[in-house]
C-alpha cells in the first residue's frame, strides 16, 4: 500500500522495492505538478495571485516542487491525466478571473467615454431630481425639527401692536441717516419675529364697504386726537373725530373740497369733470403722501383706482388709516430708492402737499416720477410753492418753482395749466422729443443696461428710463377701462402670450372664485343664521374689501372678483423669484407690486380681509429654503385682520405640511380636495379674533 504523499519534502530516498519506486515516481510527479503550478503562476501578473489563491483554496500548494537533484523539476517531462485535469481546471479558473476583470475594465472605460451630450442629459436629469428632492424635503423639514416646530406660536409683546419690520426710524437716525433717508426700508439685518401680533384693546371688526370707507373705529388705528386736529395735509384735514369713530363725511363745506379739487384737475386737463378721466385714458393713479386717502376715495366712485404711498409713521400713519378705510395703500419712500413698480406703470401721479422737495438732488425725484408715468400720463402737483401770486413777497418759493418748471421742460413734459396752488404737466407721448432737446439741457436717456423695467428698491438713477420699453404706448391709444382689463393681441404679444391663454386663465379663475365664495360661508357668519334643512347662506358681495394675492401671475383672481361683482380691490404681488408679469397686471388697469416674500411686506398689521396664495409654497421650495412655511405664515397672520381668511392652493404634499402648522398658528383650518387635480389641494383657514384684555 502506498504511503501518503509528503508535499514539499527535500532530498531523495533510494529503495530497491517496487513500491518504493512507485512512491518515488509519484513524488516526482507531484513535485513536477507543483513546479508546473509555480511556473504558470509566475507567468501571470502578481495582481492575479490573490484571486487565484482564493479560487484554489487553502489546501493548494504554496511552494514549488523540488527535483531529486535539488533543482526545480522540468514541468513538461511527465504529464499524466491527473495533472492535465488539474492544469485545465486552473486555466479555467484563471480565465474566469480574467473575464471578470476585463468586464469591469470595459464597463469603467464605457462610463468615462460617455459623450458630452449624454453627460448633459444625465446632469440635467440629476438637477431635476435634486430640485424635486429639495421641494419634497422642504415641507418635511418643517416637521423634522421636533415638537418645537409644532408647538403653539407665542403672542408678540405689546409693543408689536403696530410694528412694521424693516422700518426703524430711530435705528436709522442712530446710524447717521438723515435728509429723509431715515425713513428708508432696511431688511438686511432685520431679525424675524415668529410671533402673533395681537390687536389693540377694544379693537372692532371694520365696518363693511362702503360704510367703512367713510367711518372707521378710532381704536383700530394708532392716532391721537391732537394728530387729527393738527393734521396739515389737504386731505388729512377732511376728517372728524367722534366718540369712538373717525368720520370722513360731513355736511360742512370743508368735506366738499375733494370733489371741487378733483373737478378742478379735470378742467385743467381739458375735461368736463372727473367723470371723464376714464375717457382721457386715466385708470390708475399713484397718490404720493395721500393724507388719509380722501382723494382716492372720491375717485373710486368714478372707477379710478388710486394707490396711496407714504413714509412709515409710528403714529397717525397715512397708510394705516387709508387701508383701514378699504383703499389701496402701502409704505413707500421717494428719498433714495426707486419704488418697486415697473417703468410706465401709472396714468397719473398726484402730490398734494406731499412734503417732497422736488427741486432737490438735481431733480432725481422728478426723474423717478417720469419713469413711473405712462407716455401721455399726468403729474399733478399742489403746493404753496406753485402759487404765482406769492412770488413777489417770497423769492425763495419763486426760485424753487423756477427750478422745477425748467427741469420738467427738460423732461419733455408739457405744462397744461397752473391755477392757484395746483399745476398739471403731461408727459410726452413721442420718444423723439428727447433727441430734439438742446445738447446738455436735461438728463440723458438710460442705456439698455441701466434701463431696468422692474427694479426692486434699486438706488435712484439720474437718467430717463422706460424709453426703450416695448410697452411705450400712449394712454390715449390704450383701450379705456373696463375693456382695458382684456389686453388685445398686440399688447399680449409683448409678454409672449396669446389671447387664448388669457381667456383660458380667465375661465379658470371665474370657476375658482365661485368655489372660494362658497367655501368661505359655512363657519363664519353668525349674522347669517340658517334653519335646519336650509342650504348654507351665500356670503354677501361686500364680505371682503382688502385682498392680497401673494402670487398674482396674470392678475386673474383680481379680474374674476371684479367680474363677479365683488366689492374688492386686490393688491397683486409678484414674487421676485418667480415669473414677472407685474407690467402686464398694471397694463390691465390693476395695482400691484414686486416683493420678496422672505422679507416682511411694507404695510401695517391687520390690513387685509383675505390673503390668497396659489403656488407660492412651490416657488419658495424651489429656492432651497431661504425661509420656512412658518416664516410665511407668521407674516400672513400679521397682515390679516381678525376673522380674516387665508386660501392656499398648492401641491398636496406642501398643503399637508402647511396644515400641520395651522394648529400652532391658532387658525381654524381645513383641507379641500380639488376634483380636477388630485396632485393639488386647497387649504382654507380663518384667523380667530383674540381680544386682549386691558391692564
From TrEMBL:
GO CC term, one of those recorded: cytoplasm
EC top class named in words: transferase
Keywords noted in UniProt: Glycoprotein, Membrane, Methyltransferase, Signal-anchor, Transferase, Transmembrane, Transmembrane helix
Signal sequence residues: none
Single annotated GO MF: methyltransferase activity
Chain intervals with Low complexity compositional bias: 7-18
Keyword Transmembrane helix: yes
InterPro entries: Put_SAM_MeTrfase (IPR004159), SAM-dependent_MTases_sf (IPR029063)
A GO BP entry: methylation
One matching Pfam family: Methyltransf_29
Its EC number(s): 2.1.1.-
SUPFAM superfamilies reported for this sequence: S-adenosyl-L-methionine-dependent methyltransferases
Keyword Glycoprotein among record annotations: yes
Bias (Basic and acidic residues) ranges: 25-38
Chief location: membrane
Membrane spanning residue stretches: 90-110
Sequence segments annotated as region (Disordered): 1-38
Compartments, as annotated in UniProt: Endomembrane system; Membrane
Record's bilayer topology term: Single-pass membrane protein; Single-pass type II membrane protein
Cross-referenced PANTHER family: PECTIN METHYLTRANSFERASE QUA2-RELATED (PTHR10108:SF899), SAM-DEPENDENT METHYLTRANSFERASE (PTHR10108)
Assigned protein family: Belongs to the methyltransferase superfamily.
Descriptive protein name: Methyltransferase
Amino acid at each position: 500500500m502506498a504511503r501518503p504523499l509528503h508535499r514539499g519534502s527535500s532530498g531523495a530516498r533510494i529503495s530497491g522495492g517496487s513500491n518504493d519506486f512507485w512512491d518515488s515516481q509519484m513524488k516526482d510527479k507531484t513535485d513536477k505538478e507543483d513546479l508546473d503550478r509555480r511556473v504558470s503562476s509566475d507567468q501571470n501578473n502578481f495582481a492575479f495571485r490573490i484571486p487565484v489563491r482564493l479560487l484554489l483554496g487553502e489546501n493548494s500548494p504554496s511552494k514549488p516542487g523540488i527535483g531529486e537533484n535539488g533543482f526545480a523539476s522540468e514541468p513538461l517531462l511527465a504529464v499524466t491525466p491527473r495533472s492535465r485535469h488539474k492544469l485545465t481546471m486552473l486555466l479555467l479558473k484563471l480565465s474566469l478571473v480574467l473575464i471578470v476583470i476585463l468586464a469591469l475594465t470595459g464597463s469603467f472605460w464605457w462610463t468615462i467615454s460617455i459623450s458630452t451630450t449624454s453627460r448633459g442629459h444625465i446632469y440635467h436629469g440629476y438637477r431635476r431630481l435634486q430640485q424635486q428632492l429639495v421641494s419634497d424635503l422642504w415641507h418635511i423639514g418643517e416637521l423634522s425639527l421636533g415638537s418645537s416646530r409644532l408647538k403653539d406660536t407665542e403672542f408678540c409683546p405689546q409693543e408689536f401692536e403696530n410694528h412694521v419690520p424693516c422700518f426703524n426710524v430711530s435705528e436709522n437716525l442712530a446710524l447717521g441717516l438723515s435728509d429723509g433717508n431715515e425713513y428708508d426700508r432696511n431688511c438686511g439685518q432685520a431679525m424675524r419675529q415668529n410671533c402673533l401680533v395681537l390687536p389693540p384693546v377694544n379693537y372692532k371688526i371694520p365696518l363693511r364697504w362702503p360704510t367703512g370707507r367713510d367711518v372707521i373705529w378710532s381704536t383700530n388705528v394708532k392716532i391721537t386726537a391732537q394728530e387729527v386736529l393738527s393734521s396739515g395735509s389737504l386731505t388729512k384735514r377732511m376728517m372728524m373725530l367722534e366718540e369712538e369713530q373717525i368720520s370722513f363725511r360731513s355736511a360742512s363745506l370743508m368735506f366738499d373740497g375733494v370733489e371741487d379739487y378733483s373737478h378742478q384737475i379735470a378742467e385743467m386737463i381739458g375735461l368736463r369733470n372727473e367723470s371723464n378721466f376714464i375717457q382721457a385714458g386715466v385708470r390708475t393713479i399713484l397718490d404720493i403722501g395721500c393724507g388719509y386717502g380722501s382723494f382716492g376715495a372720491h375717485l373710486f366712485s368714478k372707477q379710478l383706482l388710486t394707490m396711496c404711498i407714504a413714509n412709515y409713521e409710528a403714529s397717525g400713519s397715512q397708510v394705516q388709516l387709508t387701508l383701514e378705510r378699504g383703499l389701496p395703500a402701502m409704505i413707500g419712500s421717494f428719498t433714495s430708492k426707486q419704488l418697486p413698480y415697473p417703468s410706465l406703470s401709472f396714468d397719473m401721479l398726484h402730490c398734494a402737499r406731499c412734503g417732497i422737495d422736488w427741486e432737490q438732488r438735481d431733480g432725481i425725484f422728478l426723474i423717478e416720477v417720469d419713469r413711473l408715468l405712462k407716455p401721455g400720463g399726468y403729474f399733478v402737483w399742489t403746493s404753496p410753492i406753485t402759487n404765482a401770486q406769492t412770488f413777489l413777497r417770497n423769492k425763495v418759493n419763486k426760485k424753487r418753482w423756477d427750478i422745477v418748471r425748467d427741469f420738467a421742460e427738460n423732461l419733455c413734459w408739457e405744462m397744461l395749466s397752473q391755477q392757484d396752488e395746483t399745476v398739471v404737466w403731461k408727459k410726452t407721448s413721442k420718444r423723439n422729443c428727447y433727441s430734439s432737446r438742446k445738447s446738455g439741457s436735461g438728463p440723458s436717456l438710460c442705456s439698455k443696461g441701466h434701463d431696468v423695467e422692474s427694479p426692486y428698491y434699486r438706488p435712484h438713477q439720474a437718467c430717463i428710463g422706460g424709453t426703450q420699453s416695448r410697452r411705450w404706448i400712449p394712454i390715449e391709444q390704450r383701450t379705456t377701462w373696463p375693456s382695458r382689463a382684456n389686453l388685445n393681441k398686440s399688447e399680449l404679444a409683448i409678454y409672449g402670450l396669446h389671447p387664448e391663454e388669457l381667456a383660458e386663465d380667465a375661465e379658470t379663475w371665474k370657476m375658482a372664485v365661485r368655489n372660494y365664495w362658497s367655501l368661505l360661508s359655512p363657519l363664519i357668519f353668525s349674522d347669517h343664521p340658517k334653519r335646519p334643512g336650509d342650504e348654507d347662506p351665500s356670503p354677501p358681495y361686500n364680505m371682503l374689501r382688502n385682498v392680497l394675492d401673494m402670487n398674482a401671475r396674470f392678475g386673474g383672481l383680481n379680474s374674476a372678483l371684479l367680474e363677479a361683482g365683488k366689492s374688492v380691490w386686490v393688491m397683486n404681488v409678484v414674487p421676485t423669484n418667480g415669473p414677472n408679469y407685474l407690467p402686464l397686471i398694471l397694463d390691465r388697469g390693476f395695482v400691484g407690486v414686486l416683493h420678496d416674500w422672505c422679507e416682511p411686506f411694507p404695510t401695517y398689521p391687520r390690513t387685509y380681509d383675505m390673503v390668497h396664495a396659489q403656488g407660492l409654497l412651490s416657488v419658495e421650495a424651489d429656492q432651497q429654503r431661504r425661509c420656512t412655511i412658518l416664516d410665511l405664515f407668521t407674516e400672513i397672520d400679521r397682515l390679516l385682520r381678525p376673522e380674516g381668511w387665508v386660501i392656499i392652493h398648492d401641491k398636496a404634499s406642501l398643503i399637508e405640511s402647511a396644515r400641520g402648522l395651522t394648529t400652532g398658528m391658532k387658525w381654524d383650518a381645513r383641507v379641500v380636495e380639488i376634483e380636477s387635480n388630485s396632485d393639488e389641494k386647497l387649504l382654507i383657514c380663518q384667523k380667530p379674533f383674540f381680544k386682549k384684555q386691558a391692564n
